[in-house]
Each structure stands twice: as C-alpha cells, then as structure tokens.
C-alpha cells in the first residue's frame, strides 16, 4: 500500500512539473510540443536553447490564398474542395509530415491514408489568433504578466487583416442555427455505401419522420452514389435486425447500438417505381452488421 501511495505521489509531482514547464515555455514564446499551427514550422530558438515557431514557406502562401478566396465570396465548403483537389495536407497531416510520420489515421471508425479539408477544419484555421503570431493555449492567446500577447513568430496576417476576416466570418454565420446534440437514433450507426461516410438525420417539413442522408458534400468529399432513406423505415429495420441477432426484447437506444458496434449500411436507391415503394424500405439496399467482443456478425 505504501509503495502504491509513493508511486501515485511521484506521478502527481511529475505531472505538476511538466505542466509548470509547458506554462513557462508558453510565457517566453518557446515551442513546447503539440500540433504546429498551420502556416508555421518548428525552428531552433534564437537563444540557442529549445525551439520556436517560424512561418512555413510551403504553407504561408496557401494561408493567403485561403483568406483571399474567403474574401472573394467563396464558401468554406468550396475552399475546402479546392484544397482537397490540390492535395494540400490538412494541419494534422502537415504536422505529421514535418515530423517524418505518415499522414492519415483513424477517425470515426474509419482508416484514412490522409485526412480531407472540411469547412470545420478551415474555420478553426481562420479563427485562430496564431495567424497574428500569437502563442495559443486551449484556443486562446497567451498573455504575459503585463497583459501583452506572447508571440511565436512573425504574424501571417496583420491585426487589421485578422480582425476584418473575423468580421466576415461572423457575418456569414449570423442567422445560422446553434448546433445542438443530436437525438437521432442512428447517428454514427448509419453509413453510406457509396463513400463509407456517416449518414445524418434531416427533418422533413410537416412530417413526423425525416430522412437519413449522405453528407459527403458537407465534408468537402465526393460520393459517387449518395444514399438516403426515410428515418422511420431505417430505424425500424435496424432495431428489428438488432433484436434478431441479440435475441433481446429490451428497449434499443442509440447508446445500446453504439456499445454493441451496430452498423447499418445503405446503398443508393433508384428513381421511379410504383406505389409499392411506399409500403416500406427496399431491404436489398440495406446491410446490418453487429460487432461484440471482437466477433462480427453479418446479416
């Protein structure tokens, strides 16, 4: 028991030292590790000790192009599409390349050779005070004892350019609805067979049900066969298949489906047809899988 207490105390002491060390590095503008802000790269500190951040010649021009595109009226989705078409690495992949590591990784249960730009990724880059050369911690500018922003290097945008950009982004976001936590049963469960991406619930005006739809375009991706299906049909099918495979009559919630590794894949439907299409889902377009304790069961 005493050895365990000593080990725990040593762990707390080490954690406190590391936290204090990183805080000290932030206050003097030295790079202490973590994701390098887009537009910068790690360089030797002028003092000869440690590292700092300096503008990255390969991405500074890209930052300026992004800002110019936004000012010209292009949407963030359109700008993200251009960056993806030009094979420009996202900040996470750029950081990996600078460290000599492979790009990509695992996200939302899928493996990627590289990640793609989205409007969300762009928004984070454009709203970060690091564009002004500020040292950032948890998304906020680090200030010294006198209240002056701590700098990491030469700014990529002037104060005036950055403030003007923020006003533009704010004006575009005015009128948008605040994001709320989804209550849709199949979020992170339903996916599109055309691109492998998640499907999201979209309400139908005046209807008690909605649709689960492929949102590849919102991720600045191209899906060659975007799928969609009525929400009540897809939810009923999923719950029925889950109960058949698990032999349970208990209520089925989204968390239950997620914990059991449930996944329903929807393929694109066909236009036209007759009244029979209103009777229910075309199950030939659906595939349900369930993963529990490493074992995978396919319907």
From TrEMBL:
Residues 37-175 form the Recombinase domain. It comes from the Bacteria. Gene3D superfamilies: Putative Large Serine Recombinase, Chain B, Domain 2. This is Recombinase family protein. Keywords: DNA recombination, DNA-binding. InterPro entries: DNA_bind_recomb_sf, DNA_bind_recombinase_dom, SSR_resolvase.
């Amino acid at each position: 028991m005493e050895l365990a207490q000593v080990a725990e105390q040593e762990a707390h002491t080490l954690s406190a030292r590391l936290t204090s060390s990183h805080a000290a590095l932030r206050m003097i503008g030295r790079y202490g590790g973590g994701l390098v802000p887009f537009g910068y790269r790690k360089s030797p500190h002028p003092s000869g000790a440690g590292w700092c951040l300096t503008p990255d010649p390969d991405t500074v021009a890209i930052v300026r192009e992004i800002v110019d595109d936004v000012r010209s009226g292009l949407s963030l989705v359109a700008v993200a599409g251009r960056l993806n078409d030009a094979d420009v690495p996202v900040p996470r992949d750029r950081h990996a390349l600078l460290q000599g590591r492979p790009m990509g990784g695992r996200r939302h249960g899928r493996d990627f050779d590289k990640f793609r730009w989205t409007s969300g990724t762009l928004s984070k880059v454009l709203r970060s005070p690091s564009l002004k050369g500020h040292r950032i911690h948890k998304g906020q500018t680090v200030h010294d004892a006198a209240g002056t922003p701590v700098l990491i290097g030469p700014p990529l945008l002037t104060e005036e350019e950055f403030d003007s950009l923020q006003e533009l982004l704010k004006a575009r976001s005015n009128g948008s609805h605040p994001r709320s936590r989804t209550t849709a049963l199949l979020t992170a469960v339903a996916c599109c067979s055309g691109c492998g991406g998640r499907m999201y619930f979209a309400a139908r005006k005046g209807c008690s049900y909605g649709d689960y739809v492929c949102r590849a375009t919102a991720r600045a991706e191209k899906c060659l066969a975007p799928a969609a299906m009525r929400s009540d049909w897809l939810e009923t099918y999923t719950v029925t298949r889950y109960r058949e495979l698990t032999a349970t009559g208990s209520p089925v919630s989204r968390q239950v489906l997620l914990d059991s590794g449930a996944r329903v894949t929807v393929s694109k439907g066909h236009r036209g047809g007759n009244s029979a299409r209103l009777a229910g889902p075309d199950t030939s377009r659906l595939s349900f899988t369930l993963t529990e304790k490493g074992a995978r069961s396919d319907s």
